[in-house]
Amino acid sequence: LKMVLLMINIYTCLTVDTVYKRYCPNVVVIQCGADCLSGDPVGTFNLTSKGMGECINTILKWNLPLMLLGGGGYNYPNTARYWTYLTSLLVNQALSNDIPEHKYFLMYNPGYQLHGQCSNRKNCNTTQYITELLANIHKNLLKINKL
Q1: Which is nearest to 63 in space by CA: 94, 95, 90?
Q2: 3-class SS of residue 69
Q3: Phi, psi (deg, nearest 5) at residue 47
């Protein structure tokens, strides 16, 4: 399983890097909607803030001016966790996984942690499907003439 996740992660980073190489941007603007996260009542994805953070870390390595925009996110504690984590990546500041006590602390139950878990929603995507999908995206990106 770790080998499969590593392979998917490498493909994802390869895809993001291919976008960079094909478009040669001078600046990057990313819309970081939290409705992609597991547990969002509107979004149908099952992503984690750490997974999304890996993509942001890849883009940070480009050393370009970067603007992250909020958006979406209808589970307010998860949205706050997500944007807090992304901000920590931007300022290169490691955070404790324990959420400190504050006025809204009880909203962060049951784990009271910065990084939540994926839901128990069944993942209908096979490793083969995801690998083929990312490979196809990468192949199509290579067809784009460099700008």
Answers
A1: 90
A2: strand
A3: -90, 165
Cα 43 from Cα 28, distance rounded (Å) = 24
pLDDT tens for each residue of 90-147: 999 999 999 999 999 999 988 899 997 777 777 788 889 988 988 898 889 888 887 6
Cis omega (within 30 of 0) on the bond before 65?
no
Task: Determine whether 19 is exposed, middle or buried from the number of CB atoms within 10 Å of its CB (0-12, 13-18, 19+).
Answer: middle
Nearest to 89 by CA among 116, 49, 118: 49
Exposed, middle or buried: residue 20 (CB in 10 Å: 0-12, 13-18, 19+)? middle
Token couple for 104 = 């809204």
CA 147 to CA 140: how far, in whole Å? 15
Tokens 């209808």 identify what position? 74
